[in-house]
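Posted in: Protein Modeling Q&A

I'm a second-year student putting together a small comparison for a lab meeting, and my supervisor asked me to include a predicted structure for Pilus assembly protein. I've never done this before, so apologies if this is the wrong subforum. The sequence is pasted below exactly as I got it from our records. If anyone can share the structure token output, I'd also love a short note on what stands out.
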Amino acid sequence: MQRGSNEQGQAMVEGLLMLPFLTVLLWAVLDIGAMQFSAQRTTQVSRQAAMAAALGQPVATLRAPARMDVEGSAQRWLGSSIARGGALQDEWFGAAMRLLSVQVRSLPPPGNVMFGLPVSRHLSVADGAGYAHGDADAQRRIGASPTGWLQASRTSQAEVQRMQRPVSQAEAPWGRPALSRDWLSAWGDVLPGDRLGGRSEGGK
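Accepted answer (user: helix_wrangler)
Welcome! Here is the predicted structure, written out as tokens:
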């Protein structure tokens, strides 16, 4: 009987020792959950700010949630590290391509003293790097690019002029049209215009 009484007292002591540990563990779980939620909010706010800046809204006018700081900057896109990549980029997209950077910093709530660490999120998007506005815009950009088209086309055009006469003589009995050197225009000889128009209308 005496042994059982001693064991009951030991269990009470162990329970009293574990109670602070369980309290701290519960507190840590709550704080970690709050910090995770803060990180998710920071990610969402940074994405929203980056997209708004890309649409032309100044970052300074964005309303950040409570206990959040939003900073933004815009700088010219330096281009590719490949040789002459920057020149080709400027010819296709112009000098308007920029790199928009947004940094959002979330401060911990006042009561979160255990894991009260600030959460920072840095996000960058390219502005002015969209697709061409239709075939005409794409043809204009490519045709005006010395690096991407003109330098290579001069060599090809000279070769076509040299071969045009013998090829035309060989193709004349078949009634085929002369060689076309306008390679940037629509390929009407490959796909008839009525078929191309019908397909475009169906795609809409």
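A couple of things worth pointing out for your meeting: Residues 144-194 form one domain. The chain has five helices and three strands.
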